[in-house]
Design goal:
The chain is mainly α. The chain has helices at residues 20-32, 39-50, 58-76, 83-88, 97-102, 121-126, 142-145, 152-165, and strands at residues 4-7, 10-13.
């Protein structure tokens, strides 16, 4: 299956690394569009009202990932604060309490949907929960991936963002 998506009327293949810079420019234009500022709220509302599971549909997962990116960008640009981050802020290590359920030496919850657990909470926190769905360790978006585990798609997203394509 080839995954394609459109930015500003242009199609991009998510597996084509040669277009990362061009894709990044288009993505930034989308995120900077004032009409896109509340997209993360719309994605969350779609989830809450329709209860669509991201892991059951590539299209729904894409919608949620765009919502995560929009929220992260708006927070970074100080346009808005994260409702998820505020609601789930735990203090101290700034770790969403649900993350502890899935990681560490004795997790109380099992990873599902092809996710995996990190046996060391210290290394996970040091790595800012790289690969866990959500904004660093402060909020686990379990409503997107179904749990607070590390997932390949989230890990790829975090690598993309941390390598400067959205900074």
């Amino acid at each position: 299956m080839i995954l394609l998506f459109c930015f500003a009327g242009e199609q991009f293949d998510v597996k084509d690394d040669s277009k990362k810079n061009e894709e990044s420019v288009k993505f930034r234009q989308l995120l900077e569009d004032p009409e896109f500022e509340f997209f993360s709220d719309a994605a969350r509302l779609i989830h809450d009202e329709l209860q669509l599971k991201g892991w059951e549909s590539p299209a729904v997962m894409f919608l949620y990932r765009m919502g995560i990116a929009a929220e992260g960008y708006n927070m970074k640009m100080n346009k808005r604060s994260s409702s998820t981050g505020e609601k789930r802020y735990f203090g101290g290590d700034n770790v969403d309490p649900k993350t502890y359920d899935y990681h560490g030496p004795n997790p109380s919850m099992q990873c599902t949907y092809n996710g995996w657990s990190d046996p060391s909470m210290d290394s996970l926190i040091k790595d800012e929960c790289h690969g866990v769905c959500g904004k660093t360790c402060t909020s686990c978006w379990d409503w997107v991936c179904g749990d607070c585990c590390i997932h390949t798609g989230c890990k790829r997203h975090d690598e993309f963002c941390s390598s400067g394509y959205l900074s």
